[in-house]
Automatic annotation (TrEMBL):
The chain crosses the membrane at residues 6-23, 28-44, 56-76, 97-121, 141-160, 172-193, 402-435, 447-468, 474-498, 505-526, 532-551, 571-591. This is Potassium transporter TrkA. The keyword Membrane applies. It comes from Oceanobacillus caeni. It is found in: Membrane. Residues 206-290, 298-382 form the RCK C-terminal domain.
Length: 592
């Protein structure tokens, strides 16, 4: 190995470790490695920043805007609610949910699909007495599978397409992946409707869990000077035997009182940390001298007069809130909303709400203004999962809503018949959306997930460094030594497995960009069709079923479904194996 190869390998290993440990946002980690490669001279400025002008990256950015406009229209929501109104059984509901969702995911980025349908499915489950956990992991898996059917179904496909163009190859057509996407989607449906349905946990939804898993939720009350039970014991203050509520800790200046005993004296200024039902906490606020600490001037009483709303939101894996406390992130001033309670799966949360360090997948119960969902539904910091008791409003511009989805379908047809390339069609769609004032500049900014784009743009440079230094060829040679003598099928399985491991613990785009140079080197050495290898890597980089952290859609449903990490392992491992077997078999017979 040359010194340059060693340097690139060390940097990539360090990058993988940092991504796995989540020491910072993925975009910043990968971009930092790119800067080091630039400073050390391993990459020229043109090579380092080639991803910024790559067609695949630009297409992803434009697709975020178009898909955001479709989601904002609410047409899909209304159609699904109408379609579901006659569903009465779990199997019937799953069919009615997931067949259309798989079709939508083939043409719309799967992240907004998951964000859109999570509250619809949760609300339907609660209304009909079903457990949301029986539906939400399948929702994520179906969007992933549906996203493999066309080029525009997921950013991973577009990234691989862009890299193929950079290598001087033809790239994917809109339906290149369909020959693989449809079979693995059918296999996924068959599994989820049989074995998978039995393996899915029977967890309750967010609101149900608040009542049944009280120790997972915390909220904070402050004792004011005029509290009638100041300098009296917890027992005399009536704070011990509360229905569905437990006083777990008292914070007094710099002192923490835990466990709280019946004889513990309540003092003015104490911050009381409760675990339990939100409804009971709302009742506590009625006690003279106890004030709910939400980090905002909004009060629960405002719910009655329509000034505020309760919002369920999930912290995203690209949020600026990560690794910060509620207080440090200046949540109140940033969003004009207060955090009433926090839920973190399979972990007891201690301390004040404002001091909790947020992690991806944390569920937040927010007290916010009535316009919160409209303002922040497309924000990258968290996914607005649902608004409890949303206001009923009439849409005065219904034509705009239908125009968005009609335009999107029109662009798909234009691309399908070859009149325009994907990037040209999406650029035209965005211009039309601006001209008709269906979206504005602020909307576009909110729709675009800039951290995802930073990952993609930076990862292109990493891929160039692997190829330029010879590292990709060296790794490919090592894989060939192990697998070549065993046949092409073994080589394909090795490539698929390694890519899939990366995507389960890192990000799908990073996995694809790390593995494509290696795959193309193997294709050249064995004189294989590079398109078949590229399809294999695109599919395996998307097929993240075993962990909640590998794919955005898995993370979106993590908190709302009340899942544990082990639920993904149990349900996702058989599906991952079935998809691998199907994909490798089809790719082998079609391309090799």
């Amino acid at each position: 190995m040359s010194l340059e190869m060693i340097a690139v390998l060390v940097l990539i290993i360090g990058m993988l470790v940092c991504l796995f440990l989540e020491v910072a946002q993925p975009g910043m980690i990968i971009f930092s490695v790119l800067v080091v490669l630039l400073i050390t001279g391993i990459l020229t400025p043109e090579e380092a920043f080639s991803g910024l002008s790559n067609e695949g990256m630009l297409t992803v950015a434009l697709l975020f805007i178009v898909a955001g406009a479709v989601q904002k229209s609410g047409v899909i929501d209304r159609l699904m609610q109408y379609w579901l109104k006659n569903s009465r059984t779990q199997t019937d509901a799953m069919l009615r949910f997931f067949v259309p969702i798989a079709m939508f995911s083939a043409f719309i980025n799967n992240t907004p699909i998951a964000v859109t349908f999570t509250p619809i499915i949760k609300n339907w489950c609660e209304e009909h007495g079903f457990s949301p956990s029986k539906f939400l992991i399948p929702l994520s898996y179906v969007t992933i599978l549906g996203g493999t059917i066309t080029l525009m179904g997921t950013s991973t496909n577009l990234v691989v397409h862009g890299m193929l163009l950079d290598y001087g190859l033809e790239g994917f057509s809109l339906f290149t992946l369909t020959v693989i996407g449809i079979p693995i989607t059918l296999v996924g449906f068959l599994y989820l409707f049989t074995i998978g349905k039995k393996l899915l946990p029977d967890h309750k939804g967010f609101r149900q869990q608040v009542k049944e898993d009280v120790k997972s939720y915390i909220a904070e009350m402050e004792v004011e000077d005029f509290f009638p039970h100041v300098n009296q014991s917890v027992m005399k203050a009536g704070l011990r035997n509360l229905d569905g509520l437990y006083l777990i800790e008292i914070i007094r200046r710099n002192e923490r009182v835990s466990p709280v005993r019946n004889s513990t004296i309540i003092q003015a200024g104490d911050r009381l940390i409760f675990a339990g039902e939100i409804a009971t906490i709302a009742e506590l606020q009625k006690i003279n001298g106890l004030k709910l600490r939400t980090g905002t001037e909004l009060e629960l009483d405002d719910l009655k007069n329509g000034k505020t709303s309760l919002i369920e939101a999930v912290v995203s894996h690209q949020s600026v809130l990560l690794s910060k406390s509620i207080k440090q992130s200046q949540f109140r001033s940033r969003y004009d909303a207060g955090v009433i309670a926090i839920h973190r799966n399979n972990e007891r949360i201690h301390g004040k709400v404002g001091d909790v360090i947020l992690k991806p997948g944390d569920s937040l119960l927010l007290l916010a203004g009535m316009d919160f969902v409209e303002k922040y539904q497309q924000a990258n910091d968290f996914y607005v999962v649902s608004q409890l008791d949303p206001p009923k409003t009439l849409n005065q511009d219904a034509w705009r809503d239908w125009f968005s989805i009609t335009l999107f379908i029109g662009m798909i047809i234009v691309v399908s018949i070859g009149w325009l390339s994907m990037v040209k069609a999406m650029a035209l769609a965005v211009v039309i959306l601006f001209i008709t004032k269906i979206i504005h500049a602020e909307d576009a900014k909110n729709f675009i997930q800039f951290d995802v784009l930073l990952v993609i743009a930076s990862s292109f440079g990493i891929g160039v460094a692997m190829t330029k230094s010879g590292l990709a060829e060296w790794i490919a040679s090592g894989l060939l030594v192990v697998g070549a003598s065993s046949g092409i099928i073994v080589v394909l399985i090795m490539l698929y497995t390694l890519t899939n491991i990366f995507t389960e613990f890192l990000t799908n785009s990073a996995a694809a960009i790390l593995m494509l140079p290696i795959g193309l080197e193997i294709a050249q050495a064995l004189e294989l069709d590079p398109m078949g290898i590229a399809v294999l890597i695109a599919i395996s980089a998307s097929a993240s079923f075993i962990t909640p952290i590998g794919y955005q859609t898995n993370l979106i449903v993590y908190g709302p479904g009340g899942y544990k990490f082990s639920d993904y392992v149990k349900v996702g491992t058989p599906l991952s194996i079935l998809v691998m077997i199907t994909a490798v078999t089809v790719i082998y017979h079609v391309w090799f």
